[in-house]
Model the fold of this input.
Amino acid sequence: MDPTLLVLGALALSGAAATVAGCAEDLESDVGSQSNPNSQVQLGPQMGNIHRYFNKAISGEPVSYGLYVAAAGAVAWALLNMGLNVPIALIIGSGIAAFVHGAYSVSSYLGRIVGQSQNFGQPVYMDVVLSHLGPIVGHGFIAVFCMLLAAYLATSVLGNPFPLPLVALIFGITVGAIGSSTGDVHYGAEREYQKYPFGGGVPVANQGDIDIKAEYGIRNGMDSSYFCSKLGGPLTGLTFGLIIFLDGWRGIIGEIVGGDLVSKSIIAIVVGIVIVAIAAYLNRMVEVYARKKYGPYTDR
Amino acid sequence: MSHGGGGHAAELYPENQVIVIGAILAIVGMYISQFFPQVSMLLGGLLASGATVAGANTTRRVAAYGLGTGVPSIGMVSLGLGAISTLAGVLLAGVAISQFNLPKELLYGIPIIVTVVSIVLGYIVGKLTVNPIGMKIPIMVESMTKLSLMGALSILGFCAAYAGGFYPDTIIEGTVKNGVIGLAFIAAGMAILHPFNACLGPNESHKRTLLLAIACGFITWFMFSIAKLDIVSSVASILLWGIVYREFVKQSLKDACSVLYTPELPKKEM
Done:
């Protein structure tokens, strides 16, 4: 088959894998209230809000996903060298990463809750631990597997010169960073502070005054994930997929149009700048539209 | 200090004692990996987790000055310094032998060279954080030195256990070229930053943090055992991890004000 076609197919497949990974990663971090929203969950009991959120304080998402995907990558790489076929090696690697993920999750919930239990009367909810662990590990497994697949494609088809464990580490850090920067916006201030007006941010006086009641019953991490699965998760996936996809096209357009290396690089850079400019303009339009339509805050 | 970070609760063991024990264990583990490569992962990996435990213990002391948001950064700084010192130390010995015609036996001193390089590097970075950057943490220089040392020892410990020795060729071929040093960086980093990051708070106790630190060290060892496809050490590491983790969970449930299995909120005292 034509090698260019193969490369295009691999690029599309890694874009699709990145989309699924971004979505699963964001929903997983919402179940556990990881990274950004975590500090508010942590402050809750100190402000008198005894809550049933899962407090998954495993560092930030980039670092923790770096760990899972790197662990999965190292194991899969070892199994591939042993001669195991590719899908099974990737699945076993992701399985080991899911196990590590679960171990770290439970320890962080118990550690953080017990760390302020006596002073502020926050009980340990074992049913929260047991019921949330499945969605956390499951979504984490999907995210890790997809990133590992993208990393495998990058090293085997797309000609990435670095070894699989290292590429996996970098890809894990990337998916964590995108999930944290894009996804948390939909959960953090919007969901935990639903009782305050939209668009006001979180003033210091309100910090820790998180919502503990759900639409029905007492709120837990699953409600947050359910809420975010409508827009936050898919948007995170779309963002990450677009980044991989558009970045790939940037190079390919340069490859097709340009002649020598310098003109190829210049075309790739110009295309990149054009994409960033369009994205920035669209972002500004959406922001202005949302503030006008939903927010009480107007231009003064 | 009694605010968000906590961590100034009574210490079970003095910090320096933990540091010395952790450093000795890790260095002994490296020599075992070098001279008995057939048990490098079983014993070298086990002893390398001593360095991550000691690093986690130091993280507990220095991070207690913050609110908890800076704990992961401290772990990453520690492993960043450690990665640089490890590579520098390993390569320095090789270059010194080829350039200055020193005896080949110098290679046996690589763990000591890495120790010295990491202490010097950590001290310099600690001084820089105090002087131009202006961090007002009294134990900053001391802690950066210890963190750098523990980062370097855990990286070299796990890499030597994986590659089966600490000679420059073994480390470069066995862990750097295949990218396993990336796993050493992030897994050992998490083992150093996670215990205090998870357990912090006003009711933090040294016992729980240390138990979790040991569990994290063992799970790091488990990841390396699996990546090396070493069945004996995988089974040994997961068993030891299970024992310590169970102890941590039991201790946490004992220390909690109450453990509930039903979705009910305790009544607020107004």
User: Anything to note?
Assistant: The radius of gyration of chain B is 19 Å. Residues 15-255 of chain B form one domain. Chain B has one domain: 15-255. The first strand of chain B starts at residue 259 and ends at 260.
